[in-house]
Amino acid sequence: MQRRQFLKSVAAFAGAVSCGSLLSNCATKAGKPNVLLILTDDQGWGDVTSHNNPRVHTPTMDRLAAEGARFDRFYVSPVCAQTRASLLSGRYHPRTGVHGVTRDYETMRADEVTIAEILKQNGYATAAFGKWHNGAHYPQNPNGQGFDEFVGFCAGHWNNYFSTKLERNGVEFKSKGYIADYLTDEAIRFIEKNKEKPFFCYVPYNPPHSPFQAPDAYFEKYKTQGMDDELACVYAMCENLDDNIARLLDTLREQRLTDNTIVLFITDNGPNTDRYNGDMRGRKGSPHEGGSRVPCFIRWPEHIKPGEVIKPIAAHIDILPTLVELLALPKPETKPLDGVSLAPLLADPNAEWPDRMLFGKWSRAGSVRTQRYRLIVAPDGVELYDMQNDPGEQTDISVSAPDVTKKLKDAYDAWWTDVSKDGFDPIPTSIGYDEMPEVVLSGHEAFLYPKIGDGISYHGKAGWANDWVTNWTSTKAYPHWPIEIVRDGDYEVSIDYVCAPENVGVRFRVEIGKASIGGHITEPHNPPHLPSPDRVKRKEVYEKEWKRLTLGTVRLARGKADLKIILDSIPGKQAMDVKAVRVKKL
User: Fold this and answer.
1) What is the pLDDT of residue 461?
2) DSSP, res 157
3) Residue 507: how many CB atoms within 10 A of its CB?
4) How many domains does the chain have?
5) In the chain, what are the helix, strand and coil shares in percent, each to the nearest 5?
6) Are residues 447 and 539 located together in one domain of the fold?
7) Positive or negative CA dihedral for 216, 222, 225, 231?
8) Distance separating alpha carbons of residues 406 and 399, to the nearest angstrom
9) Which residues, other chains included, contact 276 with Cβ-Cβ below 8 Å and sequence gap of 6+?
10) DSSP E strands: which ranges in 97-196?
11) In this model, does residue 299 exceed pLDDT 50?
């Protein structure tokens, strides 16, 4: 038995969560409650009408808040992958191995125990529909982290939102229609299929993340209000999401599941453009309030009083322990959690609640948030803001309040030392599992030697999701992927490439540890970029159709290795562009 399988099969439960709140006592009256967890991508706190934004139309999101509880100060991480790891595990993202958004730095370690795994162990059907962004390969992908079913994509963003390629449990297929509509169709099908037993339906929609693409009717509605293309498209995507969430809620009602389903709505970070965000400082990626304060609405009829506003600060790390308590589940065996259950506040928003510190970090900057203060920790020093009297973070009081500054900075330093103690070595991609016989090592996951620009680069600026290896002009340069072969055996190796006619003739070899297999580009393939219905010029790369070249079969032994593509000759100006290397267990 693999170590991961052992860890998760021995989740011997240590006894029931003792709460005594009305919420937990009610959880068993109608059988196990269902959970519908909705997460949107790059939708900021200000992108809902009920947060005093009359320019966007989100009646369903507002309805969820009105029919349940609204957290006034709810925090996530400033970027996508980190929030998802914390949300799913109940732990600060550095503990899980997640410390970036590409190059597999977004991958959560396989032995983390997720909400899905806990619910699955308790008899729930589990499924996810949308953007994963916590590991593209088994056992770090959704199916390896507790989801029976997954439809969507695992990368940090997607190139096209209309009739696009997605995956279903690791197998690629082409969807139909707008992506949020399609994902909703799939979630509805899952709910209807599992209406007779408890289910956990996780819907991490990818809009309004760029590229900015929205159906015409939604876009034109906002353009006629005089907005520029970018803002019109963002709000169009938000309203389309709102309509799709309405479809999910309608499905619950039609299946008579409303009263026995906990619905949570959260977004994953601050807004991805400069737009209304409640006069907060910062946006996505910022350590300031605007980068991490987001909407959080939770509805559970007859258990959570409608219209409640919960004032104490809370965060993504709290969702897992909160659900465990609300569902009255036995206490699961997990790694130490950072979050706390918010069930007492959902039962009584005025319950006594101790002040706490919430920590965050992205890139080189970090933060500490208490009920009153926000400390910013940057490479060039610290800043302290009184969030009750200065919610826009205009006046740094770190010098005038030295005791508070020192207390929070010391706490931050101790926190970072703790959560980063396991380090951030690259997590190797596992190859050879029956659950994923073909592994696709994408170009954006590759590390480049000797460095970007020295005879090799990514097509885009930073090698974000969907990027590829290009400008390969030196035989001394190469891309490489850290991997681990989990089973001895024969493996088929292929690459996805494009190559201009003048560069045909490239000879290369794929080295996997001590094994090697050669390749020769004999056919040109250099199609134009696929058309993309962007409303605004994108920062991401555009997509192409790639040609598959099968190199043959190689015998591989168990163990860790580096997979490299080594050039033997470049007869033209440069080698082929490489989108991916595929390794398939035979």
Assistant:
1) 83
2) -
3) 16
4) 2
5) 25, 25, 50
6) yes
7) negative
8) 10
9) 46, 47, 53, 55
10) 125-131, 149-153, 165-168, 171-174
11) yes
Q: How far apart are CA 331 and CA 18, in angstroms?
A: 9
CA dihedral 213, 216, 217, 220 (to 10 degrees): 90
The answer to whether the beta carbons of residues 243 and 56 sit under 8 Å apart is no
Helix (H) or strand (E) segment spanning residue 181 = helix 179-193
| CA separation for the pair 9, 13 (Å, rounded) | 11
89-118: pLDDT as tens digits: 999 999 999 999 999 999 999 999 999 999
Outline where 265-348 has alpha helix (H): 289-292, 319-326, 343-347
Q: Quote the tokens at residue 384.
A: 């302290």
Claim to verify: residue 404 and residue 531 sit in the same structural domain: no
Same domain, 531 and 454: yes
Tell me the pLDDT tens digit for each residue of 194-228: 999 999 999 999 999 999 999 999 999 999 999 99
Do the domain assignments include residue 567? yes
Q: What pLDDT digit, counting tens, does each position of 150-182 carry?
A: 999 999 999 999 999 999 999 999 999 999 999
pLDDT band of residue 23 (cuts 50, 70, 90) is: low
Q: Would 261 be classed as within a structural domain?
A: no
Contact between residue 185 and residue 175 where contact means Cβ atoms under 8 Å apart: no
Name the token pair of 490. Answer: 């024969």
Closest CA to 151 of 162, 159, 140, 164: 164
CATH of the domain at 377: 3.30.1120.10
Q: What is the predicted pLDDT for the residue at 553?
A: 98
> CB neighbours (10 Å) of residue 176?
10
Question: Which residue is it, tokens 């002040």?
Answer: 355
Token pair of 71 as six digits: 């957290």
| pTM, two decimal places | 0.95
Residue 433's nearest CA partner among 561, 548, 554, 583 is: 583
Task: Indicate whether 18 pLDDT > 70.
Answer: no
Range of the domain at 481: 429-585
- Cα–Cα distance measured from residue 572 to residue 565, given in angstroms and rounded to the nearest whole number: 18
127 inside domain:
no
